[in-house]
Write a structure and sequence with these properties.
The structure holds two protein chains of two kinds. In chain A, helix 5 packs across helix 6. Chain A contains twelve helices and 13 strands. The longest helix of chain A is centred in the middle third of the chain and has 16 residues. By secondary structure, chain A is of the alpha/beta class. By secondary structure, chain B is an all-alpha fold. In chain B, helix 2 crosses helix 7, helix 5 packs parallel to helix 8 and helix 8 packs parallel to helix 12. The longest helix of chain B has 32 residues. The N terminus of chain B is likely disordered. The chains are: A alpha/beta, B mainly alpha. Bound molecules: adenosine-5'-triphosphate and magnesium ion.
Chain lengths: 306, 263
Amino acid sequence: MDGTVAAAMPVIEVEALEKRYGEVHAVRGVSFSIPAGSCTGLLGPNGAGKTTIMRMIMALVQPTAGALRLFGKPPSALGRSMRERVGLVPQEDNLDPDLSVRQNLEVYGRYFGLPARTIAERVPRLLAFMQLAERGGAKVMQLSGGMKRRLTIARALIADPELIILDEPTTGLDPQARVLIWRRLLDLKREGKTLLLTTHYMDEAQRLSDRIIIIDGGRILDEGAPKDLIARHVRGHVVEVAKPLPRGFSEDGLERNDIGDAVLYYANDPAEVTRRLPADAAYLRREANLEDVFLRLTGHSLRQGE
Amino acid sequence: MSARASLPAVNRYSQAVWRRNALVWRRLIGPSLTTNVLDPLIFLFAFGYGLGAVIDRVGGMSYLAFVVPGMMCYAAMFAASFESTISTYARFSLQRTWDAILATPVSLTELMLGEMSWAATKGVFSASCVIVVGSLWGGVASPVGVLLALPALALGAICFACCGLAVTAQAKSWDIFAYFFTFWVTPMFMFSGTFFEVGRFPWFVQAIAWVLPMTHLIAVVRPLTAGVAVDPLAAAGHLLYVAALAAAAFSLARWRFGARLFG
Ligand SMILES: Nc1ncnc2c1ncn2[C@@H]1O[C@H](COP(=O)(O)OP(=O)(O)OP(=O)(O)O)[C@@H](O)[C@H]1O
Ligand SMILES: [Mg+2]
């Protein structure tokens, strides 16, 4: 993150935010702030509380405790104008199945109180931006998963929002579809929009985000620029050794992370690990990435009930 | 349109919701018009040859003049009730349409007003079809009266829509709507004076009948369309009851939906 972005007014400020659903303590005191014009990736395993945090920011879920400010004010003080400045791409598809692709955008524009002229001018532009121009007359049900996702993003942009909240915008999409969405999100960032994004794809988070917040069990584990997180939690390289570990291999003094069927060793110089391995041992050597940070911080095993 | 615009709370945001439903319905206008015209025709044909032959005069008027206003109210009640329950619940739960709308500047109250006014519109539409068919069949004695009955029918449709929303706000699954039809729609069909005079029933049935908004609506609409003298004070009382029930049901629905959606 460079100085100008850090100095900009925060678009979202969250302080000790908590949410309980009965017995379930979904969010347990989360604080962060998101500067204007940045892209922040909110990462965490299933059930970590990402969607709940986003819904609280959108005032779709009432926080149990804590403070929240959007554009410098509590959502209650902003009222309707808050919604006019934020676009949401929800995790679960809620496009209007009774309407065509184009109508989905037109009708959504009316929910924002936009004049007919503005809607007529924006809809074709958004369809083109999301490469849906040819499918304007199609029924939502006739769209592929990737097209639906693109339409949902186009819909979130109808009121030209300053802040765009995207809950897993590319889950379930093929690589081409993901690349297209990445390009569009980077375009939006270049236009000066603020993005808050969740994803389970670490390459996506690393590519798009200026800053990453990793949460688990409703708490923030760490946050920072991708490269800082990598430097902080995993050394430069990873050596992955399959189980069972070779006989006579000594792990003494190595940083390790057991991921089930293999063990990851983190080292500044991969030779620190490889020279301890027998000559015929099979291993994988690569540069450390965000995935390693994620696995390191959140552990590898699936939590109960997921 | 002007009726909607004149209601202060029904602003452009609830109109956007109304227009969404109207847009979807536009494609179905053919089948909808057909059934809304055919239904009363079949009724009138069957009753004309069936009951009409047996019953000569009811409440000082021909059976045809008696039953046509009952059918108008019934049409308004059924259409508004169906739209505000089954159809609204589909948009609320199955299609997640409400979820999508609530992420926009449309507030929950505005969304509910949009749904409610749309359900009421469908009620008025159905009732209007009965008015046309009934008039051509000769079941409307007073053309002026039927014009005066129209706002009353609209108020009734609003009330039925609000009551439907109050039930939808409680719904955790589709099951509740079976009870809604058994304990709400059917009694209004049978006991509110659609086909028989309320006074023919035993006192406890009459007591229940006068709780139902349909009974009050018919009590206002029937003398109007039949061209019988209307007691303005009694009519005002009936309409006030319908309006009060509408407001109470809407408030209950708002409170329940609010607790469910943002809890
Ligand atoms: N409406 C709700 N009622 C009860 N519990 C809920 C509700 N919504 C979420 N939870 C619980 O809150 C916790 C956090 O859920 P949330 O959807 O925020 O996780 P997430 O990080 O978005 O997960 P995923 O990656 O699977 O989307 C989970 O334990 C979930 O079961
Ligand atoms: Mg989620």
